[in-house]
Amino acid sequence: MTKSLRISAAPLAALAALVLSSCVTLHGNPQPRQANCNNDDDCRVVVSIVDCGAFTCRASVDPDELNVRGNNARWELTKEALDAGFEFQPSYGVWFKRLDGQRDFDCKLNGKMFKCQTKAHPPSGKRYSYGVQIIGPKSVRLLDPWIVN
Fold this sequence. Notes:
Blueprint: H1 2-27, E1 34-36, E2 44-50, E3 56-62, E4 65-67, E5 73-77, H2 79-83, E6 87-88, E7 94-96, H3 99-104, E8 105-110, E9 113-118, E10 127-132, E11 134-135, E12 139-140, E13 146-148
Parallel strand pairs: 1-4, 2-5, 3-12, 4-13
Antiparallel strand pairs: 2-3, 5-9, 6-11, 7-10, 8-9, 10-13
């Protein structure tokens, strides 16, 4: 009788493991949303303000990782974020965290958006970590996405 319990317990254990792993997949970190640019007009990152509490908010970018492929890029706040009084920090709204990114991109405020000109040609497929700094009526935590050139 013990042997038959082990046989029937094995499929049950496998089913439980499958259910638990699917929960981790659903509630874990999702894969980053990636996009490729085909031209300068196509290289747009939308910045949203989300999860606002009493004193702070969180920013979100779409896509999470942008492959500029030698093109220039621009970051735009959503209309809702602009209407709520949020804006890019004028000097460091979009900035690269390492010297190679600072050398390979020239970023500056352009009206209500931030634009980065690619200086590294031809594209190498290198990943750069950058920051997005938003100011407004509530504090917004620094955002740390990626760009690829």
